[in-house]
Specification:
Helix content of chain B: 40-55%
Distance between the termini of chain A: 43 Å
Radius of gyration of chain B: 25 Å
Structural class of chain B: alpha/beta
Structural class of chain A: alpha/beta
Shape of chain B: globular
Number of helices of chain B: 28
Strand order of the largest sheet of chain A: 3-1-2-4-5-6-7-8
Number of domains of chain A: 1
Strand content of chain A: 15-25%
CATH class of chain A: Alpha Beta
Number of helices of chain A: 9
Oligomer: heterodimer
Number of strands of chain B: 20
Chain lengths: ~230, ~750
């Protein structure tokens, strides 16, 4: 079967361990205020790809991916195409490839996928229900269920949160995140990603309103300091 | 064994290297591989700081003075011609300058009088009248000889920019003496070896000319060895005997290098592959308690300072070809003995550490011989220093070792040769993009309108057809290869005759193997042009003479640098075809031909001299450097770009090197320093695992270069890799700076 993707990056260095092939899957149920890939919300302009094509693409660059690299399914929300994802991951795993999914956890039918992947990068939009809804436009429950699944399967996790000036860039927020993460076993790292406005021009092109307006970029040094609090 | 050797060789293992100059055996028997990290490294000592701060002032003055601080105008080049010179005598632990003062340049007339005079004039100097009169009255030069023998077709190819940068008016360079021999054996023993050769097996009476020439050359070499000894004595050192410790070993070898830099003005004069050799002495001194780590680093730092001060007097034309006043004092670091044991030593780290202790610098041209098997700690250290300084180039040891063994060095940028056992006849480059235009225009130059290459038919098609153009191109390639070979045979015959590098050749085996290095410029432009003709619709726009002066390109076509086999195969075939065309000719002194995709910075000048091309490039626009894809056309990501270049065959094809300059923005490598280091290691590993040969790594943002171009004072030490060498960005002229900025920067998408 075919998967729907918006892009494929052969030298991903920020989405999982090592250098990786990153597959950006189309479609997402969340509408996060700061999303910098609004083109991935729907599959309107998506391209199709097969599992075999992903494997071939991986093989083309295999020597660069070394011991630690592999394939990351990102998006969009990769788990919305769980049937295709399962097929692709089975094929990759049969070829000994390290597979990561980069997800927000809002999806269904992911049980088998979760069993197979080596690492889950989980984007924690917020740890409190109100704020979660404010940022993503959806209720907290789907995310909570996904997290429970990860915990029950003892999945290796990297947690991530985007830090936006004026929304969650204060110490109190970070401490709450720290407390939340403490109760999750098998967390290998927590990363804070500084908000940037580079996605803004995409909104203009797509004719979608950009709700963060002139919110400035998040200071990288300050983000680093906040991240250090999590240690 | 004489006592002096027993003492010098105390604790060293092995015997075969004692009987004949065999450094490769000596090193393998005696070096200590280091697999640890960089935590042992020491900073600069007070002495080093004192010497370097004086140098920094002098370098600044040199820069203010239009790039040349001073020229010796009363004495001509020669090993013993100059009085000893110092920077800061009491703080220098390694001594020796080309002339009696730092950065004072030498006039070398043996390559050609005209060019030497032009260079003097350009910097506002005038040679002593008497010296000029005597030299020009009594001495014929290399340049005079070449022009006596050049054919009309060579002259036409040369003046129309089809062949450019030929070493017919200055030193050919590229010869790497095995300077380590002086340290290990002392000069007297080397003279003894050479005297044995004088009547030895290499003299074959069957070949009358070659035997006579060889006997003459050996005697020249012996005299040069005596001269090196005398020059060292003027600094108070007796190098007739072998070195007793690390300081002497480095000093002895440096005197050998220095002699070459006093005697010759070759374009590129590498230091060789010495760090691990010196480490053997350093390790022994450390064990004997006569040297500390700080002192070991001090030796390396001060030795490197000396290499940073090497200068040659150049003309503005030369600077245009090779921008930024480079000397290519290339030092090759690390590499492997075999698949499992690396030649990495603590000294491999110390050499790279000079980029921290003394700030980044273009020279010496530090070249890491990369292999899958290098210790991970060393790989990470290299990546860290690369990200910090942009001053290192990498070359694939697993690609080169099968052909060159484990004791080769790199001449200039990418040219491998067995140290002390092979030498190279440097042959500059042929413009293959212009050659394609000649195939279309019947051998008439698209700029001058003159007939340059005979016997070609003008293409009159309204839309160019691939089969016809490709066939005509093959005819042109055969013709230009012949002209190119003739030119190089003449050049090197005359260079041996009138400007023989006696001191450097004295540090080679007498039965030296000779390589003749040919090169290609405009490579990716030619390849994309062929692809455009094949896959798009290319209409020539002809002038009244019927010459295609521009092209209309309709539709898209695959471009080199996107890992697209449709065009990458065209690239592979073109290189192989050109090499085969060269290989079909006989070469001077039975040299073996090699070929490179390396332009240095001449891609800018070659582009200026070439009309519009069928790939859509407009007249005068720069070519990409070396084997690089054309600017901005490698749009499928960094790895696809690397893959395309890695497909070009090295062995028996492009065996003089395939240069790839790679610029990447830091954030595309990872979110933090550790990730960036690890990922850069993976990328370099991955590239060389495919049999690639060379990569220059630059990690910076385009904005930084634009800022540096507009505010040079903010970036006095900004060093970048351009094409086989590093250069101080401020030393490039505007055209070269703009070309570097226009290159593809691989970004995060």
């Amino acid at each position: 079967m075919n998967g729907k993707i918006t892009d494929i990056e052969s030298m991903g260095s920020a989405d999982g361990p090592g250098v990786r092939l990153v597959v950006f899957m189309a479609g997402c149920k969340l509408r996060c205020l700061y999303c910098h890939n609004p083109e991935t919300w729907t599959d309107k302009d998506a391209k199709t790809i097969t599992a075999e094509e992903i494997l071939q693409r991986f093989k083309k660059y295999e020597t660069y991916y070394g011991e630690h690299g592999g394939v990351t399914f990102s998006g969009g929300e990769p788990l919305l195409q769980s049937e295709f994802l399962l097929e692709a991951i089975k094929l990759l795993k049969a070829n000994g490839v390290h597979v990561t999914i980069d997800t927000c956890g809002v999806a269904d039918g992911y049980d088998e996928v979760l069993d197979l992947v080596d690492l889950v990068i989980l984007d924690i939009k917020a740890v409190e229900r109100d704020e979660y809804k404010f940022i993503t436009g959806r209720e907290f429950d789907d995310f909570e269920n996904f997290l429970k699944s990860c915990i029950s399967k003892n999945k290796k996790l990297w947690l991530r949160q985007v830090i936006v000036p004026g929304i969650n860039d204060d110490e109190a927020h970070v401490l709450k995140l720290k407390k939340f993460a403490k109760n999750i076993p098998n967390v290998e790292r927590i990363e804070l990603l500084p908000y940037h406005s580079m996605g803004k021009s995409k909104y203009e092109k797509l004719g979608i309103e950009y709700r963060l307006g002139d919110t400035p970029n998040m200071d990288k040094e300050l983000t680093k300091k906040l991240e250090d609090m999590l240690k | 064994m004489e006592e002096i050797f027993e003492k010098a060789w105390r604790g060293f293992h092995g015997d075969s290297w004692k009987e004949e100059a065999d450094l490769s055996n000596f090193i393998v028997r005696n070096f200590t591989e280091y697999k640890g990290d960089d935590s042992f490294l020491a900073g600069p000592t007070e002495k080093t700081k004192a010497v370097w701060s004086k140098c920094e002032k002098l370098l600044e003055e040199e820069n203010k003075n239009g790039g040349c601080l001073d020229v010796e105008t009363n004495i001509l080049s020669g090993i013993t011609a100059f009085a000893p010179g110092y920077i800061d005598k009491e703080n220098e632990v390694i001594v020796g300058l080309q002339t009696d003062a730092p950065l004072k340049r030498i006039v070398n007339m043996y390559g050609g009088t005209k060019i030497a005079m032009k260079a003097l004039e350009a910097h506002g100097y005038k040679l002593n009248d008497e010296v000029y009169k005597h030299f020009t009255t009594y001495r014929k030069t290399h340049n005079d000889g070449v022009f006596d023998a050049y054919t009309p077709s060579i002259r036409r190819a040369r003046s129309n920019g089809l062949l450019t940068g030929l070493p017919d008016g200055y030193g050919r360079g590229r010869i790497i003496g095995d300077y380590r021999r002086i340290a290990l054996y002392g000069i007297d023993k080397l003279i003894e070896f050479k005297k044995k050769d004088l009547n030895g097996e290499f003299i074959d009476e069957q070949y009358i000319e070659e035997s006579i020439r060889l006997r003459e050359e050996i005697n020249e070499q012996i005299r040069a060895l005596e001269a090196i000894k005398q020059m060292a004595a003027s600094y108070g050192f007796d190098i007739s005997k072998p070195a007793q410790n690390a300081r002497e070993a480095m000093q002895w070898a440096y005197f050998g290098y220095l002699a070459g830099a006093k005697e010759n003005n070759g374009a590129a004069t590498s230091m060789g592959r010495n760090a691990t050799f010196y480490d053997i002495y350093i390790e022994r001194d450390l064990q004997e308690g006569t040297l500390t780590e700080e002192e070991a680093q001090e030796l390396v730092d001060q030795y490197v300072i000396k290499l940073r001060l090497i200068r040659h007097l150049r003309t503005p034309d030369y600077d245009e070809l090779f921008a930024g006043d480079p000397t290519w004092v290339t030092e090759a670091v690390a590499g492997m003995v075999n698949e499992s044991k690396s030649l990495t030593t603590k000294n491999s780290f110390r050499f790279l550490n000079t980029l921290i202790n003394l700030n980044p610098s273009a020279e010496p041209n530090l070249t890491v011989l990369w292999s899958k098997g290098l210790p991970m700690n060393f790989k990470k250290y290299c990546a860290k220093i690369s990200i910090k300084t942009d001053s290192i180039q990498y070359e694939g040891d697993d690609t080169m070792r099968p052909g060159y063994g484990h004791d080769y060095a790199i001449a200039c940028c990418v040219s491998a040769m067995k140290q002390g056992k092979q030498m190279q006849f440097f042959g500059a480059r042929c413009n293959l993009a212009k050659s394609l235009l000649y195939a279309i225009n019947g051998g008439v130059d698209e700029k001058s309108g003159k007939l340059v290459v005979d016997g070609l038919e003008k293409n009159t098609e309204e839309v160019l057809t691939y089969d016809k153009v490709r066939r005509d191109y093959s005819t042109m390639i055969k013709k230009i290869a012949k002209i190119y070979v003739d030119a190089n045979n003449i050049i090197h015959f005359m260079h041996d005759k009138y400007a023989y590098e006696a001191s450097q050749m004295a540090l080679h085996d007498t039965a030296v193997e000779r390589l003749m290095a040919f090169g290609i410029a405009g490579f990716s432009c030619a390849v994309d042009s062929l692809s455009a003709i094949r896959y798009a619709k290319v209409k020539p726009i002809r002038n009244e003479q019927g010459i295609a002066v521009d092209f209309e390109v309709e539709g898209d076509f695959p471009k080199f640098g996107n890992d697209d086999d449709r065009v990458d195969i065209i690239a592979q075939e073109l290189v192989q075809e050109f090499f085969n065309a060269i290989d079909s000719h006989k070469l001077y002194r039975n040299a073996k031909p090699t070929l490179s995709l390396l332009t240095i910075t001449s891609n800018v000048m070659y582009g200026q001299k070439t009309g519009s091309t069928p790939d859509g490039r407009k007249a005068g626009e720069a070519f990409a450097p070396g084997a690089n894809p054309m600017h901005g056309r490698d749009s499928s990501g960094a790895l696809a770009s690397l893959n395309s270049v890695a497909k070009i065959k090295y062995e028996h094809c492009c065996q003089d090197g395939i240069s790839n300059t790679f610029s990447i923005v830091p954030s595309a490598l990872g979110n933090n320093e550790d990730e960036q280091v690890e990922n850069l290691v993976s990328i370099i590993d991955g590239y060389f695992a495919q049999g690639a040969q060379h990569i220059n790594v630059n990690v910076f943002n385009r904005d930084l270069l634009i800022d540096a171009m507009n505010n040079p004072w903010k970036y006095p030490n900004l060093t970048i890799r351009v094409s086989g060498y590093a250069v101080n960005f401020n030393k490039l002229d505007r055209a070269h700076q703009e070309e570097v900025i226009a290159r593809t920067f691989h970004e995060k998408r």
